[in-house]
Prior knowledge:
By secondary structure, the chain is mostly beta strands. The chain has strands at about 5, 10, 20-25, 35-40, 45-50, 55-60, 65-70, 75-80, 90-100, 100-105, 110-115. Strands 2, 4, 5, 6, 9, 10 and 11 form a 7-stranded mixed sheet that branches. A 4-stranded antiparallel sheet has the order 1-3-8-7, with no helix packed on it. Strand 4 (about 35-40) and strand 5 (about 45-50) form a beta hairpin.
Amino acid sequence: QVQLVESGGGLVQPGGSLRLSCATSGFIFSVYHLHWVRQAPGKGLEWVATIYKTSETNYADFVKGRLTISRDNVKSTVYLEMNNLKPEDTAVYYCNVNYGGADYRGKGTVVTVSS
């Protein structure tokens, strides 16, 4: 059974930092690409970043230079380091894996950027 559990969100001031984690189970983590997506209040899902099974990375234009995605294949965990956060980064953040042709996400972790 594929499971993903996000954590690490919270309330942070503009310019602050957070580190999100996503613990996974139920699939062979090391051979899958992992993604972070987000959903801002009143908006649809938005892709944020991808880390491929090779550990190569790709980012949405709006986060380049501020966010870093990484993975630990031993812990089956993917991370999102977020720096210089802006109010427009306020959203629920989800990690995502496409397994067997279906997208799986956890319940998400809430990031609120506000003074």
